[in-house]
Specification:
Order of helices and strands: HEHHHEEEEEEEHEHEHEHHHEHEHEHE
Bound molecules: S-adenosyl-L-homocysteine
Strand order of the largest sheet: 14-13-12-11-10-9-6-5-4-3-15
Number of helices: 13
Oligomer: single chain
Low-confidence stretches: 1-10
Mean pLDDT: 91
């Protein structure tokens, strides 16, 4: 058994897109290239140019690089374009055949890309489609970066902001995610400022503390979804490991270390967490944990739950969403109701991948949304 494992590890080539500038420098030194080469090659890799396509290195050098490490971008398996707001949802196929989802959202303040961090998820949140089949594997740093590069290449537009809110729990793949954050921020590559990156977590307190210690000014989003441990543990099993008090404590630590505000996500599920009493209790909890008499601004993003066939959960009526939001505002909490982008292309994460992996046929789109599928041989 052990032998097979080692063999496959030896066969697995390293990936160029997962390499830092220094690691690539080392690889190039290993094949006898001069030091300055890295400054030509690193930026091109991050622009989506494979070594054999680079015009300023020889074929021999390109071949020597490819023998050491592979260059692979996620391939577009399916692309859905919303006729309503231009949101583009990509179903990408990875080198091993697994699929992930990435979304390009066009806002007035620029293009935002929502990336996946794992194939599947093992966090088990009751309302979420990504977790239904469990976690298949972590994505490498290069596979997360590859999503940004592939979207840029396909759209021809610059990516201004990144949200780590796609499939997977970023803190459950901490090392690769941190490496990705540093790679995408590298000024010799794509160079997206940390202030333009948000990372959403289901409440992995250890991960929040580790990231706090890095002191990167990344926006942290906490998926809260309940104000009491009993409800939260029922809909989010992660709460049994890190209950609310501990997660909020980690958030405070994050805020103090980075100087960044935390944003809270709250999915509204009919019959579970969306009465005005729930709103009052939520406000009380957040004010108590974070504000403590100061003017610290607190912001909650309300998300009426997206119906996922397998879960049977429903969103509340719009009037109840409004009442919930007003009850928060009355207590000094800023609340916004998340606008649904790309409603005609099922842009919330996890559903397209599930459909495809299940029966090979992604869910049909509705209305005038356009769809491009990879031609099958
Ligand atoms: N694992 C991370 C990031 C991925 S989920 C996290 O939990 O934060 C991104 C956001 O979408 C989270 O706030 C998640 O709770 C929410 N979400 C998942 N499924 C949803 C659904 N069916 N309806 C509404 N929001 C959902």
């Amino acid at each position: 058994m052990e032998e097979t494992k080692n063999e496959s590890a030896a066969e697995k080539k390293s990936e160029l897109l997962s390499m830092s500038y220094d690691e690539l420098t080392e690889l190039l030194a290993g094949i006898g290239e001069p030091k300055y080469r890295v400054s030509q090659i690193f930026p091109q890799l991050h622009r989506g140019i494979a070594p054999e396509e680079m015009t300023n290195i020889s074929k021999k050098t390109a071949r020597a690089i490819s023998e050491k490490a592979e260059y692979r971008l996620p391939e577009i398996e399916l692309k859905l374009v919303s006729a309503i707001d231009g949101t583009v949802k990509y179903l990408f196929r990875l080198g091993d055949g697994n699929c992930i989802e990435t979304v390009l959202m066009r806002y007035r303040h620029g293009n935002t890309v929502c990336v996946s961090s794992q194939v599947g998820c093992r966090m088990g949140c009751a309302f979420c489609a990504s977790t239904i089949g469990g976690k298949i594997r972590d994505l490498s740093a290069g596979e997360i970066l590859g999503q940004i590069i592939a979207v840029t290449k396909d759209s021809g537009e610059r990516v201004d902001n990144i949200v780590m809110m796609g499939i997977g729990e970023p803190m459950d793949n901490y090392d690769n995610v941190l490496k990705f954050l540093k790679l995408v921020n590298d000024e010799r590559g794509i160079c997206i400022g940390y202030r333009h990156i948000s990372l959403s977590t289901c409440g992995h307190a250890d991960g929040i503390r580790k990231l706090a210690a890095e002191k990167l000014p990344i926006t942290l989003s906490l998926s809260l979804h309940a104000h009491d441990d009993a409800t939260r543990s029922r809909i989010m099993p992660v709460n049994r490991r890190w209950p609310l008090a501990e997660v909020l404590d980690a958030c405070r630590e994050y805020r103090d270390a980075t100087g960044r505000r935390i944003s809270f996500e709250y999915t509204l599920i009919e019959g579970q967490n969306c009465t005005t009493e729930d709103a009052a209790a939520l406000a009380g909890m957040l004010n108590g944990a974070l504000r403590k008499g100061t003017a610290y601004p607190i912001h909650v993003n309300l998300i009426p739950v997206n119906a996922v066939k397998e879960t049977g959960l429903r969103p509340p009526e719009p009037a109840d969403v409004r009442k919930f939001s007003e009850a928060l505002e009355k207590r000094g909490i800023r609340a916004t109701v998340r606008r649904t982008l790309g409603p005609d292309i099922n842009a919330s994460c996890g559903q397209l991948r599930r459909q495809t992996m299940k029966d090979g046929a992604p869910a049909p789109t509705s209305g005038k949304a356009t769809e491009e599928r990879k031609a099958t041989e």
